[in-house]
Amino acid sequence: MKVRIYYGSTIGDTESIAQVLGEKLGAEVVPISLGIKNIDCLDLILFGSSTWGYGELQDDWDDRIDILENINLLGKKVGVFGTGDQESYGDTFCDAIGIIGKAARNAGGQIIGMTSREGYNFSDSKALENNQLIGLALDINNQDNLTSSRIEKWVDQLKKEV
User: Fold this and answer.
1) Mean pLDDT for each 10-residue chunk of the chain (162 residues)?
2) How many CB atoms lie within 10 A of CB 22?
3) CA separation for the pair 160, 2 (Å, rounded)
4) Is the CATH number 3.40.50.360 carried by domain 3-161?
């Protein structure tokens, strides 16, 4: 399985998650600031971002979301992951992965890796669809003790869905 991970990270948390996912999936890990290139040979593309303020994209993603919206992802399986703070920003928790997931879908990508919202404590998110999160949502500030197990479970799920 050929996988590439694109991420945006300001303080390093999302980059660390991308690196862990890269090790577990044998994937190349690329900062989104370098752009999205040579995706035809990929079986799975992962996009990761932290959410800032009240539901805003991380800066590197904010500058490049138009690229994602205009790339051809038809027939590509796509997973999204990100970090957020469900206690301080419970009404915009991990909005960035919802925004990125929507852009990937609009570009023809098939979103895989939906996860349960069970065990989280937030009121709303753009990453929420039919009471499920469209990808891996992590809260390193308030639930870091669940990060490793959530990553493991998500990686196993992605492998089954590809």
Assistant:
1) 96 97 98 95 97 94 92 96 96 98 97 97 96 97 98 98 96
2) 18
3) 14
4) yes
Residue 159 confidence (pLDDT): 97
What are the tokens at 16?
């660390």
* Domain spans in the chain, listed from the N-terminal domain onward: 3-161
Position 21: which residue type? L
**pTM over cut 0.85:** yes
One-letter amino acid of 148: S
Cα(8)–Cα(156) distance, integer angstroms: 23
With residues binned 3-state (H G I as helix, E B as strand, rest as coil), the percentages for the chain, rounded to 5, are 35, 25, 40
The CA distances from residue 45 to 48, 67, 104, in Å, are 10, 15, 10
